[in-house]
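Q: Predict the bound structure with C2E.
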Amino acid sequence: LQRMSMQTSLREAIDNKEFIIHYQSQINASNNRLVGVEALVRWEHPTMGLLQPDEFIPLAEETGMIVEIDNWVMNTAMDQMSSWYKEGLNPGVLGLNISMKQLDKLNFLQQIETCITSHDFNSNWLELEITEGHMMKNHIEIINTLQKIADLGVNISIDDFGTGYSSLSLLKQLPINRLKIDKSFIEDLPDDEEDIAIVDSIIALARSLKLELIAEGIETKEQAEYLISKECTYVQGHYCYHPLPAEQLTALLTDETISS
Ligand code: C2E
Ligand code: CA
Ligand code: CA
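A: Predicted complex:
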């Protein structure tokens, strides 16, 4: 019963546009400059308050409603980014989480192209974050679609890297620019020897495959320092900034010491 009622209110939420986006800054820790923002959706539920993605994304995925939600996120975030750039601010690259359902859609490529054109957006301001599991499933078609998207100049990263089942040979064929080291490996740095070994290996792998890297879920100075010492300088996490509503990010972007 609860599930059904949630499903109905999710449907209403899409029609009434009850979602908002929080933007989490990505920082180059070697000079403290902002290099990008990740768009993270939240649901402003009329009675339950602000709901986090974990509370509705799984249901949205199951029911296919994720396609409409991600579409809204893509349009709204691109619009916001364009405004920031027009105001002379520099938010860097926009990270968008893309669900498998979205990638599977035949017109996804066209949808991205339309979105880029209609928002006066520059394709290299965009980075699609795709999870490992998604890339590996159904990979021939996915590689084709991703290649066409990459040909537009859009960046592609593998999210939650290290938690899925990467085939290393497939990794070489994918048109990706960047790996995002999953936060579960960062959590116990710099004390846990196994996590150190995993993080060091991912850094070495990225380097030899000439991929960029970012680590997420950085919560402490020690974690940041460890990563900087390994020359993994792009970081994202509560230690730097929490995900923030657009107005607060505008204030942050206006601060010249971080964005220029
Ligand atoms: P994700 O893509 O791995 O996003 C990073 C998550 O880590 C976010 O959770 C973020 O708030 C959280 N986080 C950031 N810094 C820290 C930190 O220092 N420590 C810890 N413990 N967590 C941190 P959030 O916003 O709850 O999103 C959860 C997941 O929901 C995302 O994981 C992503 O998979 C999904 N999601 C969020 N927005 C969207 C969206 O617009 N579309 C789709 N399809 N999925 C989304
Ligand atoms: Ca992500
Ligand atoms: Ca992630």
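A: The pocket of C2E (ligand 1) is lined by residues 24, 39-41, 52-54, 57, 66, 70, 73, 97, 99, 129, 159-160, 183, 216-219, 237-238, 243 (CB under 6 Å).
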